[in-house]
Amino acid sequence: MYAIAALAALAQETRLDIFRLLVETGAEGMPAGLIGEKLGLPSATLSFHLNQLKHAQLVKFRRESRSLIYSAEYAVMNDLLGYLTENCCQGDAAACGLPACEPATVKKEERHEAPARARLRR
Known about the structure:
The protein contains six helices and three strands; from the N terminus they run ααβααββαα. The protein has 122 residues and is mainly alpha-helical. The radius of gyration is 16 Å and the shape is elongated.
């Protein structure tokens, strides 16, 4: 099942940081070199983690001249969120009033963790 591969890929901190950065970046994506620069990752390490995310179908890339531009696969992300929440509150998310059952309605200030680019790598 795709959910297992996606969750396994996101269970690693560096890959989660990369994916969150790409989600924040938007559909236009970001060059691989800039991803590595923003997260302080050497190119070999970045390449390994991007390949894992591609294998899980969480990211895609396109070539522009000599650069590879990576972007999040929003349809896969939304399918995964839907899969994780489809039976929330016995299938009646509106009745339980839990924001976790409606991920699109969670406000940014309600998040409890730092954005990927705010974390420091050493």
